[in-house]
Design brief:
Blueprint (H helix, E strand, L loop, with lengths): L2 H8 L3 H9 L5 H19 L2 E4 L1 H17 L12 E5 L26 H8 L3 E6 L11 E2 L3 E2 L15 H8 L6 E5 L5 H7 L2 E4 L23 E6 L2 H11 L26 E4 L10 H16 L3 E3 L8 H16 L5 H12 L8 H9 L3 H24 L2 E5 L17 E4 L2 E4 L4 H9 L4 E8 L5 E7 L5 H15 L10
Parallel strand pairs: 2-3, 9-10, 9-11
Antiparallel strand pairs: 1-3, 4-5, 6-8, 7-8, 7-14, 11-15, 12-13, 14-15
């Protein structure tokens, strides 16, 4: 592959690459060899693709080329011959699944995760897996097994977490498509930090089987699996492959996500939520959300900066945080669990701080959990009523652009927002709406900050209208420009 075609291939969309393979303009083996060479040349400083399955990828690519010759183009899979990666937390047969936890360094997967399998079934050539934070529990991606992943836009900053390696690999042109997971912004935060697209699906539409540590069969209640990509078209391609019932449920039900009904940005009704005193964002990010709102208004869309769901936002946020910390604390050792129960009993009932919520949630009774789930159902109804009137809600994903590496204990970290220090986890406020309400959110790039770092925003929509939020961002890319490669990787 010549130098002149390197950038063209390295940053092409998965949709485009699959089309080239089908038309025999490029071979699957040629693409795999090209991507492997890029990883070996460029990933040393990034440390994004930390589990490498190159020999099998090359063998699969050779088989794909044979299939290209023997099969009509319209019968080839939508990812046929395209080199892709998946998050380290997904099982990849023959390789360890560790979640960055040293105790699981020898936890070798006996089969692929369902999401990995669906990418492979669609024709994808799996190159390997990408880095994560310890136990997937951070906005930065580093662990003792695989080390630290850097942001390709600025190596002194993090690519985000927990799908940080995924976003970094996409932005640097090391992979054409990814699969991540999200319980607190883990798809969307890295997409924002690295300038790529990320889709957090409606809860339950992408099966999490094989995205788990040993002994865990049931997926967490509010966590989702979903794609990251360099275009909205690729998000749609990925969702067509990934969405569907768990294998155990497949005999009894099928999924049909509604197709988008609007063909122009002028057809959309869009609410803009640019900032909030509960979790203030930088002026540059809030201004970007407002600018997008003005652009949409100029294009003929119906735009409001005041429309909000008829819910108590504080109650909704507390409910999400309760569910989040209850799930994250479910596997605490017995001694820590008992300590949390004692600590929860000593809290002032009027203390609704995030720290207090975390302590109470880790010792939540089943009775209290049922009440939390009931509040979620009430919120789902309120959000549904809101989305009956509004197609899209645009809001920030995070308080700032990519943060600098900070590996201190998380309770010692803060985030500086326009000169003011905020609690580290306060920014999860913006990620929590779509998780707590179970609806989809697509993060899309809007261009760079004054410091030349990516700014992404969320486009949220009604439950099961995943294809609508993706389509909206596809249309918007024609106005905003979509993905831009970082300097030094083209």
């Amino acid at each position: 592959m010549t130098e002149s075609t390197d950038e063209d291939v390295s940053f092409a969309t998965a949709t485009d690459l699959a089309g080239r393979v089908r038309r025999r303009e490029v071979g699957a083996l040629e693409l795999a060899e090209h991507q492997i060479a890029r990883i070996e040349r460029l990933d040393g400083d990034l440390n994004a693709v930390v589990v490498r399955d190159f020999d099998r990828a090359l063998a699969d690519a050779r088989k794909a080329d044979q299939t290209t010759i023997s099969t009509p183009p319209d019968e080839l899979g939508p990812l046929h011959g395209v080199p892709v990666t998946v998050k380290e937390s997904y099982d990849l047969e023959g390789h360890p699944t560790t979640w960055g936890i040293s105790e699981f360094a020898d936890n070798v997967a006996k089969s692929d995760a369902e999401a990995t399998r669906r990418y492979r079934r669609g024709g994808g050539v799996i190159l390997g897996k990408t880095n994560v934070p310890l136990a997937l529990g951070d906005f930065q991606s580093y662990n003792r097994i695989h080390g630290t992943t850097n942001n390709p836009w600025d190596h002194t900053t993090s690519p985000g977490g927990s799908s940080g390696g995924a976003a970094a690999a996409l932005a640097a042109g090391l992979s054409a498509l990814e699969c991540g997971s999200d319980i607190g912004g883990s798809i969307r935060n890295p997409a924002h930090y690295c300038g790529v697209y990320g889709h957090k699906p409606t809860w339950g539409v992408v099966p999490p089987q094989g995205h788990a540590l040993p002994g865990v069969m049931a997926g967490p209640d509010i966590a989702v699996s979903g794609p990251l990509a360099r275009s909205a078209d690729d998000l749609r391609l990925a969702m067509d492959l990934l969405a569907g019932p768990e294998p155990l449920d497949a005999p009894g039900w099928a999924l049909r996500l509604p197709e988008p009904t609007k063909t122009s940005l002028s057809d959309y009704r869009v609410a803009i939520w640019a900032d909030d005193e509960r979790a203030p964002v930088s002026a540059e990010i809030s201004s970007r959300a407002e600018e997008v709102g003005r652009l949409l208004g100029d294009l003929g869309a119906t735009v409001s900066t005041e429309a909000r769901p008829a819910i108590d936002i504080d109650v909704a946020h507390r409910n999400y945080m309760t569910m989040l910390w209850a799930i994250l604390g479910a596997d605490l050792p017995t001694a820590q669990y008992r300590a949390r129960r004692l600590a929860a009993g000593d809290l002032d009932p009027a203390d609704h701080s995030d720290a207090a919520i975390a302590v109470r949630a880790a010792a939540l009774s089943h009775r209290a959990w049922i009440s939390t789930v009931n509040r979620r159902e009430t919120l789902r109804h309120a959000w549904r009523a809101f989305y009956d009137e509004w197609d899209i809600l645009i809001c920030p994903q995070s308080a700032t652009t990519a943060m600098g590496h900070d590996h201190r204990p998380m309770d010692e970290r803060t985030v500086e927002v326009d000169g003011a220090e905020q609690p580290y986890f306060q920014q999860i406020f913006w990620a929590g709406h779509a998780i707590g309400g179970s609806f989809p959110s697509t993060v899309f790039p809007t261009g760079l900050s004054a410091a030349s770092m990516p700014i992404g925003l969320q486009a949220m929509g009604a439950e099961y209208h995943d294809l609508t939020t993706i389509e909206f961002t596809r249309l918007l890319a024609a106005e905003l420009g979509g993905f831009t490669p970082p300097p030094g990787y083209s």
